[in-house]
From TrEMBL:
One protein family per Pfam: AhpC-TSA
Taxonomic classification: unclassified sequences, metagenomes, ecological metagenomes
Classification via InterPro entries: AhpC/TSA (IPR000866), Thioredoxin-like_sf (IPR036249)
Residue span, Alkyl hydroperoxide reductase subunit C/ Thiol specific antioxidant domain: 51-189
Record-given protein name: Alkyl hydroperoxide reductase subunit C/ Thiol specific antioxidant domain-containing protein
Biased composition (Polar residues): 189-200
Sequence segments annotated as region (Disordered): 189-211
GO MF annotation, one: oxidoreductase activity
Organism in which the protein naturally occurs: hydrothermal vent metagenome
Length: 211
């Protein structure tokens, strides 16, 4: 049976091991702190497959007797589809405000903007007329459609939002979102915001990047 090491020698060995371990840990920490990471290009991340945009037809505030069909614009335009919070009002809604500010850039991309809210066309039209008293000549610059609640049959409420997954069935919550639909009718980009407004500048940058 081998003789046990003297306690003084054992202490020296343990101290040496602790010193080596400390040096290794310090080196790893220094490496992590000083290492430079290559930034990720978000635009290079592509979905595995595009999906077809659900077709729809809804009433516009400007011509409440005529339904606007998404299919009418496919093949000729890219579509920026906006689901906004109608309770904030079409004039004060922050997403719609930003879109109006970006109108020159949107026109340069030949993009058709379609905004969908949950208020009646008559209410939207009245809000615009009231705003025109403050700003004579004001015209709402893009399509403003109504996807409404059906009080008689809740399953028929907000059919377009449901088709795009923008209605929380459990919480009964209308979600806000931006969708870019290409000319072939496929969703190429989307951003949703159930609790806060989606970022309009992100959508504009995406539209400006591709013709």
């Amino acid at each position: 049976m081998p003789e046990p090491l003297p306690s003084s020698r054992l202490k020296r060995i343990l101290l040496s091991l602790l010193l080596v371990a400390g040096i290794v840990i310090a080196a790893l920490c220094y490496y992590k702190i000083t290492r430079t990471y290559q930034p990720v290009d978000i635009d290079s991340i592509r979905p595995t497959a595009k999906r077809n945009a659900p077709l729809f037809e809804l009433y516009d505030y400007h011509k409440p007797q005529e339904r606007v069909r998404l299919a009418t614009y496919l093949g000729r335009h890219r579509i920026l589809l906006v689901f906004f919070d109608g309770q904030r009002g079409i004039i004060d809604d922050p997403v719609l405000k930003e879109l109006r500010n970006y109108l020159p850039q949107l026109k340069s991309t030949r993009t058709k903007v379609i905004a969908i809210g949950d208020t009646l066309p008559q209410i939207n039209r009245a809000a615009i007329r009231q705003y025109q008293e403050k700003v004579p000549g004001f015209q709402f610059p893009f399509l403003l459609l109504s996807d409404l609640e059906n009080e008689k049959d809740p399953l028929l409420s907000y059919q377009v939002r449901r088709a795009y997954g923008m209605y929380d069935e459990q919480e009964k919550l209308l979600q806000q979102a931006l969708f870019i639909i290409d000319r072939s009718g496929q969703i190429e980009w989307s951003q949703t915001g159930p609790k806060q407004s989606p970022s309009t500048p992100d959508a504009i940058r995406k539209l400006l990047k591709k013709p």
